């Protein structure tokens, strides 16, 4: 059985109130001998305070919730690790919620986390349904739970967001392919209702416009930010005679690698591929993946620090959206298009 | 402000006791009209029960703790996802604790999880310190918290473990290299105090003995189950003139890939490499990695089900250790040794 404060009081031969004062380091005049007796008893019994009871009284659970789309995507695995580490350093624990890219589960999780009265929530949305965004924000608001989004922003005014300059990321990817001579560039995007997706696409359009290449909507294949649609996507792109594909995350790019292998398509000889995120494996795959880097660890630390500042009411004067700069990392998956 | 049961009672114009009975579906004779009025009020206010208070009363928090060494290792990322999914299906939430392969943090986390009065703990230890294993088990025991280990077992009698037949895994890896003609096989292991490490090594020894090849301890390089020691390890193995290396997990094998690239060593022409785990990226790296597969999703589901059975007192007659079967997956990172 877990020892209670009652057990400590009994062993130390004093009142529960006195034990409570001593163990909480309250500055009252209690004889030193009593203080020592109480600490000795607490240590002997391995007594530790009941965090549920502490939470009921202080209205703080020292818990944060993290909702991510897919912990098996190395980008989110790295992000979750960075967030957990930063949370621990600030004496918070983390409830991990993996929505498996299911928007309905985002709604379930915000209710669950509210019920658990976490002190704050970090959210990476699975989809960009505006109505559900509003519901999520409303549930957090009603329960007085500060919410910060990371990576993907939500539709709504009061939401703090730690994100990448996704427009610039899309621009850099397309500009690189254009500079190699590509004109028919396929975009393998995630759901376009997500701000991050359509901002990346807008960046592509900007780079095309600058180069005087008309944007062809038929070269867009909207998938999901996970494995599973790559065979369909690659067949679509080959049919459209694209010479390069910009996959909106690295996992989708790797999916294309597997499909291409099966279909005897060589990267980059037959098809150039650019990814997004720069997860560790980009350096290891063959050919090494050209990609747009997100500074995932920095973003993880930043989102925890922002959330804690908001929880402590100290976030005045901070911008609602903090954008990190993307960086193009050129490796071996991109080359000039084949001459026909 | 979060609505309380008091707000529901006020809006429904009845007592808190009546509201509590209705919302908890207690079978008492309350007029249907009152029941409807209370549910209407609760819905209008978005009232949800205070889980902290519920936890105080039921002595159940419906929370599980998960301690893993490294969420950025795709094996543990997949494992954490499988565990979170299985927990959610059973109405549990998961506190994620990433020890970053630091054994001291394992001890801190078991205390934190005990303080939070989780209903059960799933543990993948960072190291194999027997004394700390005992401390962890003791803390869980004292607080009445069931504990199940997964992947890596702990030293201790009463601990339920979901693991792989690691001896067989090591045997399969070595047997494969021996069958290709390798005699000088380097082992790039994790800490040997971990049962999983020394069992894999014992499997290697068994395969060598069967083939009549004496075991040479100088061909063992003990590292950690993460990136960081690969340059040192590869230099050591080349110095020892090994023709093949069995890395005790895939991430360490990928580390060797990066080092080999930098040192102009070709895999498998100059050096064969076998990994362990079979994470998704094994298929994507170049050359594709020959490895020993662990059924990570099945193991994740099994550990949650086992833990819940133990929590419910229904685990009688189940073996304390459940071993899954490894499978050798031969890809392109292994070949016969070069003729000199």
Attribute tags:
340 residues; 6-stranded mixed β-sheet; alpha/beta; homodimer
Task: Itemize the secondary structure elements and their pairings.
The structure is a homodimer of 340-residue chains.
Chain A: H1 5-12, H2 16-23, H3 32-44, H4 51-58, E1 63-68, H5 74-89, E2 93-98, H6 103-115, E3 120-123, H7 130-142, E4 147-151, E5 160-164, H8 166-179, E6 185-189, H9 195-210, E7 220-222, H10 230-239, E8 244-247, H11 250-262, E9 272-277, E10 290-293, H12 296-311, E11 321-324, E12 327-329
Helix pairs in contact in A: 1-2, 1-3, 5-12, 6-7, 8-9, 10-11
Walkthrough of the structure:
Two copies of one chain form a homodimer. Chain A has 340 residues and is of the alpha/beta class. Chain A is built from twelve helices and twelve strands. The first copy, chain A, has helices at residues 5-12, 16-23, 32-44, 51-58, 74-89, 103-115, 130-142, 166-179, 195-210, 230-239, 250-262, 296-311, and strands at residues 63-68, 93-98, 120-123, 147-151, 160-164, 185-189, 220-222, 244-247, 272-277, 290-293, 321-324, 327-329. Chain A is elongated, with a radius of gyration of 26 Å. The mean pLDDT of chain A is 91. At the A-B interface, helix 4, helix 5, strand 2, helix 6 and helix 11 of A face helix 4, helix 5, strand 2, helix 6 and helix 11 of B. Strand 2 (93-98) of chain A pairs antiparallel with strand 2 (93-98) of chain B, so a sheet runs across the interface.
